[in-house]
Automatic annotation (TrEMBL):
Keyword DNA-binding in annotation: yes
Lineage: Bacteria, Pseudomonadati, Rhodothermota, Rhodothermia, Rhodothermales
Protein name per its UniProtKB record: Phage integrase family protein
Occurrences of domain Tyr recombinase (ranges): 270-462
Keywords per UniProt: DNA integration, DNA recombination, DNA-binding
Length: 467
């Protein structure tokens, strides 16, 4: 890298012929379904003699030639066995440009990546379960029979009376599995509140999907105001989360009518603090002890700002493998945002590189900053706890630094993201590009970040025109 070390990119090891051969030599047969999984089962010579039996292949494919007006393509399950192929159309359409044909999944930048990929993985597991059951039964296996069994199972699941509360809890657990602990806890709290509302109002502990009507959610809104004493924006957040869970149910075909069509999500404008790029530089120019905790917090804050407005959770979990050279030879920071699981990548400007050079470069999974030091990358709960602790400590230091810089505002770490958004918008002038830099899924989010900043860039033109 720029500090004198340029490690080659890490490669993913794949199964080789020799490994497969050694598996067969031990009495097993290894067959890989292209781009999906590898299955190892014992070779029953009493059934097949010395000939290795053919294995059914399951794969998920995108019909790229069936693109609709919105750039989406249908997905289907392909079953191949003994030269016979059968297909099952799936209730999923994906953006063609976000489909990874090798992995047979949508990329992390797809708006519904987590939900779609989880659905596809569950479907694969169900398909392989069907194949295993047929093999154990000793029945003749054909591609058509596998298809019929899979469809029969799916119909049974679809026709079974389901509970929306159980469905919602499973969806919420998905955020935890994907490492989105903050979102998981927020959604879990809302689900618990909605469950309490159902129990207190109706004396039930389940809600059939057919009962999800607009009136039910209007009653829930009243319950939040009158029984829980929630504020307008809190109620709006609770309804927004329930709306998201309802949309998940609709995408899986569990609902035909959309109960939120005529429900307004409550909100009221709130006064938010904004930190200008000039004020950020005033904090950067303060002369303080570089070995102090305040200086350490400032380095995290400034790196977040110079890297395009990173969230604290992303700074806390930044690893050296996320810092690498792009095709142009420029060093870049490329990471998956903890909040949305979307991938973001921007080039590192000199100020950001200068901060990084203060830290000893480690191996790929080593933390860049000491925020998460001593915690295993796979321990999401511990990472979340540490993030909350260090974020609070950093905010206290930033408040002190702001006072030293003569800034009479309640400065927090997140304000670096707003300041970066405003500086990018001032210099780029294209809100769509700024939205991409920030990793937003739509420009409305970006607009909310820059609302409230005073644009003085055209003041001279106005004065010249009016005088």
């Amino acid at each position: 890298m720029w500090c004198g070390r340029n490690a080659p990119p890490r490669r993913i090891r794949r199964h080789t012929a020799s490994k497969s051969a050694s598996t067969a030599a031990k009495g097993g047969v290894r067959r890989a379904c292209p781009g999906i999984v590898s299955i190892t089962r014992p070779f029953d010579r009493t059934r097949y003699g010395s000939q290795i039996p053919p294995m059914p292949a399951i794969s998920i494919i995108a019909r790229t030639r069936r693109k609709d007006d919105h750039g989406r393509v249908p997905i289907r399950l392909r079953i191949s066995h003994r030269g016979e192929k059968r297909f099952i159309a799936l209730p999923v359409k994906v953006l063609a440009k976000k489909w990874n044909g090798d992995k047979r999944r949508v990329t992390g930048t797809h708006p519904d990546a987590g939900e779609i990929n989880t659905f596809l993985s569950d479907l694969e597991r169900a398909a392989f379960s069907v194949i295993s059951r047929l093999e154990r039964a000793g029945t003749l296996i054909t591609a058509q029979r596998i298809k019929d069994e899979i469809q029969e199972e799916r119909e049974e699941v679809k026709s079974a009376p389901e509970d929306f509360l159980a469905f919602a809890r499973e969806k919420v657990k998905g955020y935890k599995r994907r490492g989105q602990i903050g979102t998981f806890r927020s959604y879990r709290t809302t689900c618990r509140k909605f469950t309490a509302f159902i129990e207190e109002t109706y004396g039930r502990d389940e809600v059939p999907f057919g009962a999800l009507e607009a009136e039910l959610f209007r009653e829930f809104r009243t319950y939040c105001y009158e029984e829980r004493g929630n504020s307008t924006n809190t109620v709006g957040r609770e309804l927004g989360i329930m709306r998201t869970l309802v949309r998940h149910a609709m995408k899986e075909g569990k609902l035909s009518a959309y109960p939120f069509e005529h429900i307004t999500i409550d909100s009221e404008p709130s006064q938010k603090e904004l930190l200008t790029p000039e004020e950020v530089e005033r904090i950067a120019d303060l002369e303080i002890d570089e070995e102090s905790p305040a200086a350490e917090a400032r380095r995290w804050f400034l790196f977040a700002y110079y890297a395009g407005g990173m969230r604290f959770s992303d700074v806390a979990t930044l690893q050296w493998q996320h810092i690498r050279e792009g095709r142009s030879g420029r060093p870049r920071v490329c990471y998956k945002m903890k909040k949305t699981a979307d991938t973001v990548g921007v080039p590192l400007i000199p100020e950001a590189k200068e901060i990084l050079c203060r830290y000893e470069e480690g191996d790929g999974e080593d933390w860049v900053f000491p925020i998460s030091e001593g915690i295993d990358p796979g321990n999401e709960e511990a990472l979340h706890r540490r993030k909350c602790q260090r974020n609070s400590a950093a905010n206290r230091h930033l408040k002190e630094l702001a006072g030293q810089a003569g800034i009479e505002k309640r400065v927090t770490f997140h304000l670096s993201r707003n300041a970066a958004a405003w500086k990018l918008y001032q210099n780029v002038g294209d809100i769509y590009k700024v939205s991409k830099f920030l990793g937003h899924s739509n420009v409305e989010q970006t607009q909310d970040y820059i609302d409230g900043f005073v644009d003085e860039s055209r003041d001279e033109d106005f004065i010249a025109a009016m005088t």
